[in-house]
Specification:
The chain has about 725 residues and is α/β, with parallel strands linked by helices. The protein contains 30 helices and 20 strands. It folds into three domains: about 290 residues, 2-enoyl-CoA Hydratase, Chain A, domain 1 (Alpha-Beta Complex), CATH 3.90.226; about 180 residues, Rossmann fold, CATH 3.40.50.720; about 220 residues, N-(1-d-carboxylethyl)-l-norvaline Dehydrogenase, domain 2, CATH 1.10.1040. It binds nicotinamide-adenine-dinucleotide.
Length: about 725
């Protein structure tokens, strides 16, 4: 073998080869063209050398591998575009098909090389890397908790195109296989063994030996599906058993995706067609779908936002470079209520010490008890040990004494949303903390620059806006006040990185970024309701558009009363014209006449019966002055209204300089409020449609539904110049 640098290759006295994948200068192995070339050499060496009985593949790193280099796949798309222009669509397509199936062919060569291959896996082994393991004839996983296998490609709009769909569907019942492929979840070792994905689980330092022993004891070099008499786990597609599976599979696909995700549809097609064919042809079918999906705009949008941009933001794309890394050790959280208690938990969970303060020690202890409960739940699920809970709780000091904040590096306040209470707390905290300590507010509605007026050091004052539930929501908005300085920004970003969430940096404005867009979504739902549309159709339109929940349901979650409170505060500050009267009337009736506050009192747009499923409140129709016949409703338009209104708000935040980087709008919109992920986010939705088409759509909605759909200047300019948000951002960076 010549020049193999990404693997170490050795053969032991029994003639068993060990290929240790360990890419120099990288913390994680990824599949690159070089790795593919070297793997090919290894396969040919093992296949061709009579002295070698078989080969174990393992990793020299803490993890096995995260899979293929997605930027390599992005590059393929660019090459396709170039070839299509220069040599025509057919040549480009041919090139694309051949290139995009190289990995699949390589794995098939390994599987049919005539020598047994075994994968010994420790740590994460995902995507193309797990497809490598699946092509091996034997798989053993370490029993360590961090070990995970899975095929998460669907999460970035792709699907497993290197044999994954075919091998998984031949290893387990079709229904289970489809579920695994649709969801793309990471699977723990014992679960993987129970599902039949791997053959064995062993202690970490025994995995290579287990794999070797399997080869030594005559492990077969023929995959089950290449053996004579192999039977599919769910029998043939066209059989009585198959008919139990496929019709519901189509329905489940529709229910789960609303047909918005071509990659998931491609999984369904690949498995359905592939299971009717012998392996080599089945792989070819999978490759054809893969080539098609790789060129889809959904894949391009999702790879860009959910992989590349998210990684950039997580790595600190917005962090001021010249501020040295902060050494955060102790964080103060003031206000141990709903939000503060959770902020204390995620902070302590990241290994930081926390001082949790409330008005009295009982309230502070109550906030700390939240961490006890969360950890106890983890213990019940077998995900943590009692010692972990003890250690985490020992890092949280509940207190009513502001003096305990003296040695904190950062203090986050989450007290009542009342400027007077906030002002008092700011004064008390600043009297107690070190001069270099950063102060952050978790306010969701009060402008940071206004609060900073209460501070003696506004350059050290910043917003760190969490979303609820804090434990689950991955987004954190960092809000820059007018005078916020670089050190405060760097510290806030370092903190968000430590607690493993994704930050976006926004400039001060009412509602910041995420809540502005969310409110637009909810408003549109309310207006559809007051127009007389059936509530069920409004909710369904939200889901079909790709939102996680309908707008009325979302309003119930945040609280119908909170919606009314925000609306009234806006009216008080910005005047009558800043709100929509129909919305105020609807919310006033719901809250003040009907006492329907949302999920919190089990009565909102929905009823929430104890122990039962929520359902739309039958009294809703009585609140509608008119009713539109369901048959006359244009669902497509409802879907458009619900997405366009959010995208427009996102564009306005960009125009106003609240958001300055389209990556943050896109990542923020998906992580913050679940904006239809297949679009790549609220601004990518506009970019992929094209500003001109988007402006035309806005105009037609404006003519029918009013000026809230009027496109702002920035979009008119983009429509005229043919520009995109990303194009403009790129040009600005280059200038
Ligand atoms: P909450 O009422 O549950 O908690 C507030 C806590 O602050 C209470 O425990 C209260 O005792 C304590 N407190 C009040 N005055 C205090 C003082 N002077 N000193 C110390 N403690 C004091 O409220 P919450 O929902 O947790 O909201 C807190 C903040 O977080 C608000 O600014 C809110 O806008 C913001 N926020 C809330 C959400 C949400 O979904 N609830 C989301 C994002 C941000």
């Amino acid at each position: 073998m010549t020049n193999v640098t990404n693997f170490r290759f050795e053969v032991d006295a029994d003639g068993i080869a060990l290929a240790t994948w360990d890419m120099p200068g990288r913390s994680m192995n990824v599949i690159t063209p070089e790795v593919m070339g070297e793997l090919e050499q290894i396969i040919e060496k093992v296949a061709g050398d009579e002295a070698i009985k078989g080969c174990v593949i393992t990793s020299g790193k803490e993890a096995f591998s995260g899979g293929a280099d997605l930027t390599m796949l992005q590059g393929l798309g660019a090459e396709y575009g170039r070839l299509a222009k220069e040599k025509g669509e057919e040549t480009a397509m041919q090139f694309f098909f051949e290139e995009s199936r190289k990995l699949s062919l390589l794995y098939r060569r390994l599987e049919t090389s005539g020598k047994p291959f075994a994968a010994a896996v420790h740590g994460v082994c995902l995507g193309g890397a797990f497809e490598l393991a699946l092509a091996c004839h034997f798989r053993v996983l370490s029993d360590v908790d961090s070990t995970r296998v899975g095929l998460p490609e669907v999460k970035v709009g792709l699907f497993p195109g290197a044999g994954g769909t075919q091998r998984v569907a031949r290893l387990m019942q079709t229904g289970d296989a489809l579920q695994m492929l649709f969801k793309g979840e990471q699977i723990r070792p014992l679960m993987a063994r129970n599902m039949g994905l791997v053959h064995a689980v062993a202690p970490r330092d025994a995995i290579v030996q287990t794999a070797r022993d399997w080869i030594k004891q005559g492990g077969s070099a023929v995959a089950p599906w290449d053996q004579k008499g192999y039977k599919l786990p769910s029998n043939k597609v066209y059989s009585a058993a198959g008919m139990q599976i496929w019709p519901p599979a189509n329905a489940i696909y529709r229910r789960e995706t609303q047909d918005n995700y071509p990659a998931i549809r491609a999984i369904l097609e690949s498995v359905y067609q592939g299971l009717q064919l012998p392996m080599d042809l089945a792989l070819k079918v999978e490759s054809r779908w893969f080539a098609k999906i790789l060129r889809s705009k959904e894949a391009a949008a999702m790879i860009r936002t959910l992989f590349i941009s998210m990684q950039d933001l997580n790595k600190g794309a917005r962090r001021p470079k010249d501020v040295p890394p902060s050494s955060l050790k102790k964080v103060g959280v003031v206000g141990a209520g709903f939000m503060g208690a959770s902020v204390a938990y995620v902070t302590a969970n990241a290994g930081l010490n926390v001082v949790l303060i409330d008005r009295d020690i009982e309230a502070a202890e109550k906030g700390k008890a939240h961490s006890h409960k969360l950890m106890s739940d983890q213990i019940m699920k077998g995900r943590a040990k009692t010692a972990d809970r003890d250690a985490l709780l020992s890092r949280i000091k509940a207190s009513a004494d502001y003096g305990d904040l003296a040695d904190c590096d950062l203090v986050i306040e989450a007290v009542f949303e009342d400027p007077k209470v906030k002002a008092e707390v700011i004064g008390k905290v600043e009297a107690a903390i070190r001069p270099d300590c950063i102060f952050a507010s978790n306010t969701s509605t009060l402008p940071i620059s206004g609060l900073a007026k209460q501070s003696k050091r506004p350059d050290q004052f910043i917003g760190i806006h969490f979303f609820s539930p804090v434990e689950k929501m991955m987004l954190v908005e960092i809000i820059m006040g007018k005078e916020t300085g670089d050190k405060a920004l760097a510290t806030a970003l370092d903190y968000v990185r430590l607690i493993k969430k994704t930050p976006i940096v926004v400039n001060d404005s009412r509602g910041f970024f995420a809540n502005r867009c969310v409110l637009a979504y909810i408003l549109e739902g309310h207006l559809m309701f007051t127009e007389g549309l059936p509530a069920a159709m409004i909710e369904q339109a939200g889901k079909q558009a790709g939102m996680p929940v309908g707008p009325l349901s979302l309003n119930d979650e945040v609280g119908v009363d909170l919606g009314l409170k925000i609306l009234r505060a806006t009216k008080a500050q910005l005047g009558e014209t800043s709100i929509v009267p129909e919305q105020e009337e609807l919310l006033t009736t719901l809250v003040e006449k009907e006492g329907r506050l949302g999920r919190k009192n089990r009565k909102g747009f929905y009823d929430y019966p104890e122990g039962g499923q929520k359902r739309l409140w039958p009294g809703l129709t009585d609140l509608q002055a008119k009713h539109v016949e369901a048959e006359l409703v244009d669902m497509q338009e409802l879907k458009q209204r619900l997405l366009v209104t959010q995208a427009l708000e996102a564009a306005r935040t960009f125009e106003e300089g609240v958001i300055t980087d389209p990556r943050e709008a896109d990542v923020g919109s998906i992580l913050g409020f679940g904006f239809a992920p297949y679009t790549g986010g609220a601004l990518s939705y506009i970019d992929f449609m094209g500003a001109k088409a988007f402006v035309d759509l806005c105009r037609s909605l404006q003519a029918k539904h009013g000026d809230r759909f009027a496109p702002p200047r920035i979009l008119l300019d983009m429509a005229a110049s043919g520009d995109t948000f990303y194009g403009r951002a790129g040009a600005k960076k280059a200038a």
